[in-house]
Amino acid sequence: MKWNAYDPTPFYDEVLEKNAKPRPVAKHLFNYLKSLENKELQARKEASQLCIEEMGVSFTIYSEGNNIDRDWPFDIIPRPIPADEWKGIEKGLIQRMKALNLFINDVYNDQQILKDGIVPRHLIDGSSNYLKACEGITPPHGVWANISGTDLVRDGEGTFRVLEDNLRVPSGVSYMIENRQITKRIFPELFDTQSILPVSDYPVHLYDMLASLSPREIEFPVIAVLTPGIYNSAYFEHSFLAQEMGAELVEGADLFVDTDDCVYMRTVNGKKLVDVIYRRIDDTFLDQEVFNKDSMLGVPGIMRAWKKGNVAIANAPGSGVADDKAVYAYVPDMIKYYLNEEAILPNVKTFLCHIEEDYNYTLENIDKLVVKPVNESGGYGILIGPRATKQEHEEFRALIKANPRNYVSQPMLDLSTAPVITDEGASHRHLDLRPFILQGKDCWVTKGGLTRVAMVKGSLVVNSSQGGGSKDTWIVET
Fold first, then answer.
1. What separation in angstroms does the CA of 109 have from each of 104, 106, 142, 409?
2. Contact partners, residue 284, CB within 8 Å, separation at least 6
3. What is the pLDDT of residues 171-203, one digit of tens each?
4. pTM listed for this prediction
5. How far apart are CA 242 and CA 264, in angstroms?
6. Cβ distance 252 to 232 under 8 Å?
7. Taking the C-alpha atoms of 288, 223, 444 and 183 in order, what is their torsion angle to the nearest 10 degrees?
8. For residue 426, is pLDDT > 90?
9. Of all helices (H) and strands (E), which one includes residue 243?
10. What are phi and psi of 272, to 5 degrees?
11. Distance between CA 235 and CA 257 in Å, rounded?
12. What single string gives the DSSP state of each residue in 200-233?
């Protein structure tokens, strides 16, 4: 295939340093791709789609009031990262998660970090993710966010930065595993001559972490994956992980809390005690007694059982207090405060609209900035200033003025790119990376993560919920 026309300039490209010159980690991959005709690559691309259909890998998009179930969008060219570079990223992610969990535990107990003025108290008082029902609780191992997906981006200089922390109900790990399975089937020969670190061991590590939370010290605790049901966008992942772990896949109606304040599962053989719940539903739908009384998804009394230590819940209710784009800006300070270390992974420069100077800067430079609401996810509610109209700028100025606490802004980053296969051949697209971190008794990080790709040329929106795709991520030992 001809690559002379592939020019990602001015962006940092993950595969090519410049025209037709691969980065050292991508040399073997690039030479192999270059040896294939476009016709052959198109055939492999079609084969990948058949694999996805055969494996039933799907994702639900909510559009105009409809639920559209579609095949997982996938690009066949992997994204390679050197193993030596990954070791530093791994250390940075573990450091970050330790500090965030110490912060959450502090916020629901002594609040020392607020008393010392490191994090402003009003950020917590004004947070919709702070749950009074969680005050005074310390979960097993002092860990609240047991499963996290931290979004990383590589900037124009090639530096990995943390874009945001996902500590509530992070999704996407099943697609990371399936992407590897598909790539092995499409390009089996590439795995014979390189050492590419595995990702298929994630369910084993997830099971071990969840088992370490069990209130009962037994060899095989009963673990249940609590799903909202088949109409949820990530239902494929819920069923996939339950099956891979040998755990029970349940909906709220399958569970109940008995008079002993323990959680049981309804089975054909009678009730069965549940030790650990990996919940994939939002906090406010978890318990009709404490939160939304009209919820059809939760289990009445589950918070009572959790508070008494009769059941473990991962992620713990209330973890979202640190999953806030305003709190995010203070994570380097948390690392210094709790661990007495400098942050290994830098943040993206963030302007907090509750601070007068940042507020004025954001309003004056809204056409140059990306403006985000602090509690939204999935890429919703965001203004990309340089690509927005003057009317949209004015609308967002009004939103910021009405509720400064609810908005942050960041400079528009030159996100790194990687080649994707289009009908015409190779073309560059922007991407990010979501590694997954498990924290229970120990801390463990996936070897790579879910690389999400903007499937539209020039777009910076990589979120699956808004039409983004993905590709396999290789951590390569050279």
1. 9, 5, 11, 30
2. 291, 292, 295
3. 899 989 999 999 999 999 999 888 999 999 999
4. 0.92
5. 17
6. no
7. -100
8. no
9. helix 235-245
10. -135, 125
11. 24
12. TTHHHHHHHHHHTT-SS--SS--EEEE---TTST
Phi (first) and psi of residue 255, to 5 degrees: -115, 155
What's the residue count for the chain?
478
**Cα 188 vs. chain centroid, distance in angstroms?**
28
Those residues whose C-beta lies under 8 Å from the C-beta of residue 97, and which sit 6 or more positions away, are 145, 148, 150, 437, 439, 443
Segments of 220-329 assigned E as strands = 223-226, 248-250, 255-257, 263-267, 270-273, 276-279, 312-314
The per-residue b/e assignment along 290-312, b for 16 or more CB within 10 angstroms, e otherwise, is bbeeebebbbbbbbbbbbeebbb
Residues facing 195 on adjacent strands: 477
Coil, strand or helix: which one is 151? strand
Evaluate if residue 131 carries a pLDDT over 90.
yes
**pLDDT value for 324:** 86
Annotated domain spans of the chain = 351-411
Find, among 338, 14, 290, the residue nearest to 154 by Cα: 14
At 196-254, the pLDDT tens digits run 999 999 999 999 999 999 999 999 999 999 999 988 888 989 999 999 999 999 999 99
- Any idea which fold 351-411 has? Dna Ligase; domain 1 (3.30.1490)
d(CA 189, CA 185): 9
- Angle (CA) 242-320-438 rounded to 5° is 45
How many Å apart are CA 18 and CA 207, to the nearest integer?
A: 43
Tokens describing residue 160: 């990995």
Rounded to a whole number of angstroms, the distance between the first and last alpha carbons of the chain is 25
Alpha-carbon dihedral angle through residues 338, 145, 329, 283, given to the nearest 10 degrees: -130
Angstrom distances, CA of residue 244 to CA of 57, 230, 232, 241, 335: 15, 18, 19, 5, 34
What is the spatial distance between Cα 22 and Cα 3, in angstroms, rounded to a whole number?
11
